[in-house]
Write a structure and sequence with these properties.
The structure is a single chain. It contains 8 helices and 18 strands. The protein is α+β, with helices and mostly antiparallel strands. The chain folds into 2 domains: 315 residues, no CATH class; 89 residues, no CATH class. Strand 3 and strand 4 form a beta hairpin. Helix 2 runs parallel beside helix 8. It is globular. It starts with a helix and ends with a helix.
């Protein structure tokens, strides 16, 4: 029974680490419960920053670390720890749950079949088959009720903790794992293979409640034609995911995360309450090339890329490549003339015309710094030219990217970041070290 308790605890951890509140009505953002007009980190549209860019970047990074500080999520982490420890210690006094789990698992496996000398066993997992309501009683026994979804309530230090799960499976199984081997016994050589398939849910909803209060949840929508996770067909497969995960004050939303043979996109937002912390918005359109040149890094005939990363509405980094094929071809061309200064400088000049990349403050229309590529002459006995990415600021200052983001200029931020990461790692290690 301890194995069963551990499995239930593991399910709870997975649930808690992928979560979202589903009671508020969705709005134009696509994120339930989030209102962009109430976002305190919504960009003002005005670059009215009076401190130096270095100071502003450092202030923003430290504000982000503060918003993700351990103090903001330690209560949730400590409850998860307590829940897992309690579940590992439990010795349930009846086997209703065990028999239910074993019967469910039995429905996943097909009879082994032969393919030549190989004995193959396949498991097809339907998450929607998990149905029934279970509730732990004070004496450790469970009541069991038939239902169209799955729900389990356990007692943790006398407190009711309830997990619910309901989904609608797709009709296409996705191969997620396979293994195999061979043996030689009784003068006979045999081979075996195991394959695991999951019917990926078209929709899924999972919630964790402490008493009647929602602690964590997940809403998920998936559409895919992929049938083997290790063999995605770039020219025919499609996939899309919309998901919102929530725990405590944090929400992670994935909207319009898609792939198709003609384009891909992703809109990802991390929130602390109503405040945006990080937003990523990326889109690409392309025509794939079924016969790319040997060694060509991306199999495309044409394409374009547009991406924006926003940090707390304070800093935005934007990049655009209107002709990805030209960008790649020009970049590859520079490799062929690295010993010819005039030709190399001409190609770098052309390469700068194939993309734009810039940093903005507060969502202003004009960039605070623009990224350009500069050719650098050979040095220290080398005969090869090379490219140096350079930040050109609106005040006329210019720095190589490596030179700008140096220990000398951002030493205190580097130290603060290291301390912040070490603090989180140490807290997690200390809290969960006994599990």
């Amino acid at each position: 029974m301890k194995k069963l308790a551990f499995l239930l605890a593991a399910v709870a951890i997975v649930a808690v680490s992928a979560c979202q509140k589903n009671t508020p009505e969705p709005n134009d953002s696509g994120i339930p419960g989030y209102n962009e007009n109430e976002d305190p980190n919504r960009p003002s549209g005005k670059d009215d920053v009076t401190v130096s860019p270095e100071q502003y970047i450092e202030e923003t990074a430290k504000a982000l670390m503060s918003a993700l500080d351990v103090e903001n999520w330690k209560n949730e982490a400590e409850f998860i720890h307590k829940f897992v420890v309690e579940m590992q210690k439990k010795e349930f006094k009846d086997d209703k749950l065990k028999k239910w789990a074993e019967a469910l698992e039995d429905t996943w496996y097909r009879e082994p079949h032969k393919d030549g000398n190989v004995t193959i066993t396949d498991a097809y997992i339907r998450l929607s088959d998990a149905k029934g309501h279970f509730e732990e009683q004070p004496d450790g026994t469970f009541t069991q009720t038939d239902a169209d979804d799955f729900q389990i309530t356990v007692l943790v230090d006398g407190e009711k903790v309830t997990g619910t799960f309901k989904c609608v499976d797709s009709k296409v199984p996705l191969k997620v794992a396979s293994s195999g081997g061979s043996s030689y016994e009784n003068d006979q050589y045999t081979e075996w293979a195991n394959n695991t398939y999951v019917y990926v849910p078209e929709t899924a909803n999972l919630k964790i409640l402490r008493g009647s209060a929602e602690f964590a949840s997940l809403d998920l929508k998936v559409s895919t034609t992929v049938t083997d996770i290790s063999q995605v067909d770039l020219f025919n497969d499609n996939a899309s995911i919309d998901a919102t995960f929530k725990i405590g004050v944090y929400t992670l939303s994935l909207q319009k995360v898609t792939y198709s043979p003609t384009g891909a996109s992703a809109y990802i937002k991390l929130l602390n309450g109503q405040a945006s912390l990080i937003t990523i918005d990326a889109k690409a359109g392309y025509e794939l090339d079924p016969n790319p040149a040997e060694g060509y890094p991306v199999p495309i005939k044409s394409g374009n890329v547009d991406a924006t990363v926003d940090v707390m509405g304070r800093i935005q980094v934007k990049a655009n490549i209107p002709d990805a094929k030209k960008f790649i071809d020009t970049g590859l061309g520079s490799n062929k003339v690295m010993q010819d200064g005039d030709a190399f400088k001409a190609i770098v000049d052309d390469l700068n015309k194939t993309f734009t990349a810039a940093m903005y403050f507060n969502g202003a229309a004009d960039p605070r710094a623009t990224l350009v590529l500069e050719p650098v002459a050979p040095a220290d006995g080398s005969t090869y030219w090379y490219i140096n990415p350079v930040l050109r600021f609106s005040d006329g200052a210019s720095y190589g990217v490596e030179e700008y983001f140096s220990q000398e200029r951002f030493g205190s931020l580097v130290s603060a970041t290291g301390e912040w990461m070490d603090g989180i790692s140490q807290y997690i290690a200390n809290l969960f070290g006994d599990i």
